[in-house]
Amino acid sequence: MERKKLLSNLENRNIEQIYLIYGKESFLIEEIQEKFKTLVDEAMMDFNLSVLDGKETNLEEFRSSVETLPFMDEKRYIIVKDFELLKGKKKNFNDSDEKELVKILENISDTTVLVFITHGEVDKRKAIYKSINKRGVVCEMKKLDDMSLLNWCKLQFSNRNVSISNSDITYFIEATGYRDRTSEMTLGDVEQEIIKLCSYVDNDEAITKDIIRNLMNSRVENDIFQLIDMIGNKNAKRSFKILNDMIDSGESILGVFAMLSRQFNHIIQVKYLQEDKMPQAVIKDTLKMHPYTFNKVVRQAKNYDENGIVSILNYISDSDYKIKQGLMEDHLAAEILIAKYCR
Questions:
Q1: Which of 10, 86, 174, 289 could be bridged to 122 by S-S, CB 3.0 to 4.6 A?
Q2: Where in the numbering of this chain does the DNA polymerase III delta subunit-like C-terminal domain appear (predicted)?
Q3: Full residue range of the structural domain in which residue 90 is found
Q4: Which residues of the chain have pLDDT under 70?
Protein backbone atom coordinates (compact mmCIF):
# COMPACT_ATOMS: atom_id res chain seq x y z
CA MET A 1 0.00 0.00 0.00
CA GLU A 2 1.20 3.51 -0.79
CA ARG A 3 1.84 5.98 2.04
CA LYS A 4 -0.87 8.41 0.92
CA LYS A 5 -3.48 5.65 0.82
CA LEU A 6 -2.41 4.41 4.26
CA LEU A 7 -2.67 7.90 5.77
CA SER A 8 -6.09 8.37 4.20
CA ASN A 9 -7.32 5.05 5.59
CA LEU A 10 -6.08 5.87 9.08
CA GLU A 11 -7.63 9.34 8.89
CA ASN A 12 -10.98 7.73 8.03
CA ARG A 13 -10.46 5.00 10.65
CA ASN A 14 -10.50 2.30 8.01
CA ILE A 15 -8.33 0.02 10.14
CA GLU A 16 -6.83 -3.37 9.25
CA GLN A 17 -5.59 -5.86 11.84
CA ILE A 18 -1.91 -6.19 10.91
CA TYR A 19 0.53 -3.63 9.49
CA LEU A 20 4.19 -3.61 8.55
CA ILE A 21 5.71 -0.16 8.08
CA TYR A 22 9.36 -0.23 6.99
CA GLY A 23 12.01 1.58 4.96
CA LYS A 24 14.87 4.05 5.15
CA GLU A 25 12.74 7.17 5.59
CA SER A 26 12.62 7.25 9.39
CA PHE A 27 10.89 10.64 9.32
CA LEU A 28 7.90 9.17 7.44
CA ILE A 29 7.90 6.02 9.57
CA GLU A 30 7.64 8.10 12.75
CA GLU A 31 4.82 10.10 11.15
CA ILE A 32 2.82 6.90 10.59
CA GLN A 33 3.61 5.62 14.09
CA GLU A 34 2.30 8.83 15.65
CA LYS A 35 -0.80 8.59 13.46
CA PHE A 36 -1.58 5.17 14.93
CA LYS A 37 -1.22 6.57 18.44
CA THR A 38 -3.83 9.24 17.72
CA LEU A 39 -6.36 6.46 17.08
CA VAL A 40 -6.22 5.49 20.76
CA ASP A 41 -8.44 7.32 23.25
CA GLU A 42 -5.97 9.40 25.27
CA ALA A 43 -7.74 8.55 28.52
CA MET A 44 -7.32 4.82 27.78
CA MET A 45 -3.76 5.04 26.41
CA ASP A 46 -2.19 3.06 29.27
CA PHE A 47 -4.64 0.20 28.74
CA ASN A 48 -5.10 0.11 24.97
CA LEU A 49 -1.63 0.88 23.61
CA SER A 50 1.49 -1.25 24.06
CA VAL A 51 4.86 -0.45 22.51
CA LEU A 52 7.27 -3.40 22.40
CA ASP A 53 11.01 -3.26 21.73
CA GLY A 54 11.32 -5.81 18.94
CA LYS A 55 15.01 -6.33 19.68
CA GLU A 56 14.30 -7.48 23.24
CA THR A 57 10.78 -8.95 23.29
CA ASN A 58 10.25 -12.71 23.40
CA LEU A 59 7.47 -15.06 22.34
CA GLU A 60 5.54 -15.00 25.61
CA GLU A 61 5.61 -11.21 25.96
CA PHE A 62 4.49 -10.90 22.34
CA ARG A 63 1.68 -13.42 22.81
CA SER A 64 0.51 -11.76 26.02
CA SER A 65 0.32 -8.33 24.40
CA VAL A 66 -1.52 -9.59 21.32
CA GLU A 67 -4.05 -11.61 23.32
CA THR A 68 -4.87 -8.87 25.86
CA LEU A 69 -8.36 -7.50 25.25
CA PRO A 70 -9.08 -3.75 24.98
CA PHE A 71 -10.45 -1.90 27.99
CA MET A 72 -13.66 0.08 27.40
CA ASP A 73 -12.94 0.43 23.69
CA GLU A 74 -13.27 -1.55 20.46
CA LYS A 75 -9.57 -1.87 19.64
CA ARG A 76 -6.24 -2.38 21.37
CA TYR A 77 -3.06 -1.32 19.53
CA ILE A 78 0.33 -3.02 19.77
CA ILE A 79 3.34 -1.34 18.13
CA VAL A 80 6.40 -3.57 17.74
CA LYS A 81 9.52 -1.57 16.90
CA ASP A 82 12.36 -3.15 14.87
CA PHE A 83 11.23 -6.75 15.34
CA GLU A 84 14.38 -8.85 14.96
CA LEU A 85 12.78 -11.69 12.98
CA LEU A 86 11.79 -9.28 10.21
CA LYS A 87 15.49 -8.45 9.87
CA GLY A 88 16.42 -12.12 9.61
CA LYS A 89 17.89 -12.21 13.14
CA LYS A 90 17.05 -14.66 15.93
CA LYS A 91 18.35 -13.29 19.20
CA ASN A 92 15.27 -14.25 21.22
CA PHE A 93 13.47 -16.60 18.81
CA ASN A 94 14.17 -20.06 17.42
CA ASP A 95 12.56 -21.79 14.42
CA SER A 96 9.80 -23.22 16.61
CA ASP A 97 9.03 -19.75 18.01
CA GLU A 98 8.76 -18.33 14.51
CA LYS A 99 6.20 -20.97 13.54
CA GLU A 100 4.25 -20.15 16.69
CA LEU A 101 4.33 -16.44 15.82
CA VAL A 102 2.81 -17.19 12.43
CA LYS A 103 0.01 -19.11 14.17
CA ILE A 104 -0.60 -16.13 16.46
CA LEU A 105 -0.94 -13.87 13.41
CA GLU A 106 -3.31 -16.34 11.77
CA ASN A 107 -5.60 -16.27 14.81
CA ILE A 108 -5.31 -12.65 15.86
CA SER A 109 -8.40 -11.24 17.57
CA ASP A 110 -10.66 -8.76 15.78
CA THR A 111 -10.08 -6.39 18.69
CA THR A 112 -6.29 -6.26 18.15
CA VAL A 113 -4.38 -3.97 15.79
CA LEU A 114 -0.76 -5.09 15.44
CA VAL A 115 1.73 -2.65 13.91
CA PHE A 116 5.30 -3.66 13.08
CA ILE A 117 7.63 -0.66 12.69
CA THR A 118 10.99 -1.47 11.09
CA HIS A 119 13.68 1.06 10.19
CA GLY A 120 15.54 -0.17 7.12
CA GLU A 121 15.00 -3.24 4.96
CA VAL A 122 13.16 -6.42 5.93
CA ASP A 123 13.88 -10.03 5.01
CA LYS A 124 11.04 -10.91 2.65
CA ARG A 125 12.01 -14.58 2.71
CA LYS A 126 10.93 -14.98 6.33
CA ALA A 127 7.69 -16.80 7.11
CA ILE A 128 6.54 -13.96 9.36
CA TYR A 129 6.91 -11.42 6.53
CA LYS A 130 4.95 -13.65 4.17
CA SER A 131 2.22 -14.04 6.78
CA ILE A 132 1.96 -10.27 7.33
CA ASN A 133 1.95 -9.63 3.59
CA LYS A 134 -0.86 -12.17 3.12
CA ARG A 135 -3.09 -11.06 6.00
CA GLY A 136 -2.27 -7.41 6.52
CA VAL A 137 -0.93 -4.20 5.03
CA VAL A 138 2.72 -3.72 4.05
CA CYS A 139 3.89 -0.18 3.36
CA GLU A 140 7.46 0.78 2.47
CA MET A 141 8.46 4.35 3.32
CA LYS A 142 10.25 5.37 0.12
CA LYS A 143 11.65 8.73 -0.89
CA LEU A 144 8.99 11.33 -1.59
CA ASP A 145 8.17 12.13 -5.21
CA ASP A 146 8.90 15.62 -6.54
CA MET A 147 5.53 17.22 -5.76
CA SER A 148 5.22 15.60 -2.32
CA LEU A 149 8.76 16.69 -1.48
CA LEU A 150 8.02 20.27 -2.57
CA ASN A 151 4.90 20.38 -0.39
CA TRP A 152 6.72 18.76 2.53
CA CYS A 153 9.53 21.33 2.37
CA LYS A 154 7.02 24.16 2.03
CA LEU A 155 5.29 22.95 5.21
CA GLN A 156 8.60 22.72 7.10
CA PHE A 157 9.50 26.33 6.25
CA SER A 158 5.94 27.50 6.99
CA ASN A 159 5.93 25.79 10.40
CA ARG A 160 9.02 27.83 11.25
CA ASN A 161 7.39 31.07 10.02
CA VAL A 162 10.02 31.56 7.32
CA SER A 163 9.19 32.85 3.83
CA ILE A 164 10.59 31.18 0.71
CA SER A 165 9.27 31.06 -2.85
CA ASN A 166 8.39 27.84 -4.66
CA SER A 167 11.22 28.39 -7.13
CA ASP A 168 13.71 28.79 -4.29
CA ILE A 169 12.36 25.65 -2.60
CA THR A 170 12.95 23.83 -5.88
CA TYR A 171 16.50 25.20 -5.95
CA PHE A 172 16.98 24.11 -2.33
CA ILE A 173 15.79 20.57 -3.12
CA GLU A 174 18.17 20.36 -6.07
CA ALA A 175 21.03 21.56 -3.86
CA THR A 176 20.38 18.84 -1.27
CA GLY A 177 20.75 16.08 -3.85
CA TYR A 178 17.86 14.22 -2.15
CA ARG A 179 16.27 13.15 -5.44
CA ASP A 180 19.51 11.84 -6.94
CA ARG A 181 19.19 8.15 -7.70
CA THR A 182 22.32 7.22 -5.76
CA SER A 183 21.66 9.61 -2.86
CA GLU A 184 21.51 8.19 0.66
CA MET A 185 20.07 11.47 1.96
CA THR A 186 16.87 11.18 3.99
CA LEU A 187 14.17 13.64 5.00
CA GLY A 188 15.88 13.89 8.37
CA ASP A 189 18.96 15.23 6.58
CA VAL A 190 16.82 17.64 4.54
CA GLU A 191 15.18 18.86 7.75
CA GLN A 192 18.60 19.63 9.24
CA GLU A 193 19.39 21.80 6.22
CA ILE A 194 16.03 23.57 6.61
CA ILE A 195 16.74 24.22 10.30
CA LYS A 196 20.14 25.65 9.40
CA LEU A 197 18.63 28.01 6.80
CA CYS A 198 15.79 29.11 9.09
CA SER A 199 18.15 29.87 11.96
CA TYR A 200 20.18 32.15 9.69
CA VAL A 201 17.47 34.60 8.61
CA ASP A 202 15.64 37.22 10.67
CA ASN A 203 11.89 36.94 11.25
CA ASP A 204 10.97 39.26 8.39
CA GLU A 205 13.64 38.03 5.96
CA ALA A 206 12.93 35.57 3.15
CA ILE A 207 15.29 32.76 2.21
CA THR A 208 16.77 33.30 -1.25
CA LYS A 209 18.95 31.36 -3.66
CA ASP A 210 21.99 33.35 -2.51
CA ILE A 211 21.41 32.37 1.12
CA ILE A 212 20.90 28.74 0.13
CA ARG A 213 24.05 28.78 -1.99
CA ASN A 214 26.15 30.32 0.78
CA LEU A 215 24.95 28.16 3.67
CA MET A 216 24.28 24.71 2.31
CA ASN A 217 26.76 21.95 1.76
CA SER A 218 27.63 22.01 -1.92
CA ARG A 219 26.51 19.26 -4.27
CA VAL A 220 30.13 18.11 -4.43
CA GLU A 221 30.26 17.71 -0.65
CA ASN A 222 27.10 15.61 -0.76
CA ASP A 223 28.72 13.43 -3.43
CA ILE A 224 31.75 12.97 -1.16
CA PHE A 225 29.46 11.94 1.72
CA GLN A 226 27.79 9.40 -0.55
CA LEU A 227 31.10 8.07 -1.88
CA ILE A 228 32.40 7.49 1.65
CA ASP A 229 29.12 5.78 2.56
CA MET A 230 29.38 3.44 -0.41
CA ILE A 231 33.05 2.59 0.19
CA GLY A 232 32.20 1.88 3.83
CA ASN A 233 29.36 -0.40 2.69
CA LYS A 234 31.75 -2.19 0.27
CA ASN A 235 29.51 -1.21 -2.64
CA ALA A 236 32.00 -0.90 -5.50
CA LYS A 237 29.35 -0.47 -8.22
CA ARG A 238 27.74 2.55 -6.56
CA SER A 239 31.15 3.97 -5.63
CA PHE A 240 32.31 3.89 -9.26
CA LYS A 241 29.01 5.48 -10.36
CA ILE A 242 29.35 8.39 -7.92
CA LEU A 243 33.01 8.91 -8.85
CA ASN A 244 32.28 8.90 -12.58
CA ASP A 245 29.36 11.31 -12.13
CA MET A 246 31.66 13.71 -10.25
CA ILE A 247 34.28 13.50 -12.99
CA ASP A 248 31.62 14.04 -15.69
CA SER A 249 30.45 17.17 -13.85
CA GLY A 250 33.96 18.62 -14.01
CA GLU A 251 35.58 17.58 -10.72
CA SER A 252 39.27 16.65 -10.85
CA ILE A 253 40.58 13.44 -9.29
CA LEU A 254 43.01 15.44 -7.16
CA GLY A 255 40.12 17.60 -5.97
CA VAL A 256 38.13 14.49 -5.05
CA PHE A 257 41.16 13.08 -3.22
CA ALA A 258 41.57 16.32 -1.26
CA MET A 259 37.93 16.28 -0.15
CA LEU A 260 38.08 12.58 0.74
CA SER A 261 41.21 13.19 2.80
CA ARG A 262 39.54 16.06 4.65
CA GLN A 263 36.46 13.98 5.43
CA PHE A 264 38.39 10.89 6.54
CA ASN A 265 40.46 13.11 8.84
CA HIS A 266 37.20 14.30 10.41
CA ILE A 267 36.06 10.70 10.82
CA ILE A 268 39.23 9.55 12.56
CA GLN A 269 39.21 12.61 14.85
CA VAL A 270 35.65 11.76 15.90
CA LYS A 271 36.62 8.13 16.55
CA TYR A 272 39.58 9.16 18.73
CA LEU A 273 37.43 11.53 20.80
CA GLN A 274 34.67 8.92 21.13
CA GLU A 275 37.24 6.49 22.52
CA ASP A 276 38.06 9.12 25.15
CA LYS A 277 34.36 9.00 26.17
CA MET A 278 33.86 12.63 25.19
CA PRO A 279 30.14 13.57 24.88
CA GLN A 280 28.84 14.01 21.33
CA ALA A 281 27.95 17.68 21.83
CA VAL A 282 31.45 18.43 23.11
CA ILE A 283 33.04 16.62 20.15
CA LYS A 284 30.91 18.67 17.74
CA ASP A 285 31.90 21.93 19.41
CA THR A 286 35.57 20.91 19.66
CA LEU A 287 35.77 20.14 15.95
CA LYS A 288 33.58 23.17 15.09
CA MET A 289 31.26 21.12 12.88
CA HIS A 290 27.75 21.99 11.76
CA PRO A 291 25.21 19.48 13.22
CA TYR A 292 24.38 18.10 9.76
CA THR A 293 28.04 17.46 8.91
CA PHE A 294 28.77 16.12 12.39
CA ASN A 295 25.86 13.64 12.28
CA LYS A 296 27.10 12.41 8.91
CA VAL A 297 30.62 11.92 10.24
CA VAL A 298 29.40 10.06 13.34
CA ARG A 299 27.33 7.71 11.18
CA GLN A 300 30.18 7.14 8.74
CA ALA A 301 32.62 6.44 11.57
CA LYS A 302 30.67 3.27 12.37
CA ASN A 303 31.64 1.78 8.99
CA TYR A 304 35.40 2.20 9.41
CA ASP A 305 38.03 1.13 11.90
CA GLU A 306 41.04 3.31 12.66
CA ASN A 307 43.52 1.12 10.79
CA GLY A 308 41.32 1.21 7.70
CA ILE A 309 41.08 5.01 7.79
CA VAL A 310 44.85 5.39 8.22
CA SER A 311 45.39 3.03 5.28
CA ILE A 312 43.03 5.07 3.08
CA LEU A 313 44.67 8.36 4.07
CA ASN A 314 48.12 6.93 3.32
CA TYR A 315 46.93 5.65 -0.06
CA ILE A 316 45.45 9.05 -0.96
CA SER A 317 48.65 10.84 0.11
CA ASP A 318 50.90 8.46 -1.86
CA SER A 319 48.66 8.62 -4.94
CA ASP A 320 48.50 12.41 -4.79
CA TYR A 321 52.32 12.53 -4.89
CA LYS A 322 52.58 10.00 -7.74
CA ILE A 323 49.94 11.79 -9.84
CA LYS A 324 51.68 15.15 -9.43
CA GLN A 325 55.04 13.57 -10.32
CA GLY A 326 53.59 11.92 -13.42
CA LEU A 327 54.19 8.45 -11.97
CA MET A 328 50.52 7.42 -11.96
CA GLU A 329 47.45 8.19 -14.06
CA ASP A 330 44.80 9.92 -11.94
CA HIS A 331 41.79 7.86 -13.08
CA LEU A 332 43.68 4.65 -12.36
CA ALA A 333 44.57 5.87 -8.86
CA ALA A 334 40.90 6.58 -8.11
CA GLU A 335 39.75 3.23 -9.48
CA ILE A 336 42.35 1.36 -7.42
CA LEU A 337 41.17 3.24 -4.31
CA ILE A 338 37.61 2.01 -4.78
CA ALA A 339 38.58 -1.53 -5.81
CA LYS A 340 41.01 -1.88 -2.89
CA TYR A 341 38.75 -0.61 -0.12
CA CYS A 342 35.46 -2.07 -1.36
CA ARG A 343 36.81 -5.62 -1.04
A1: 86
A2: 221-341
A3: 3-140
A4: 181-183, 217-219, 292
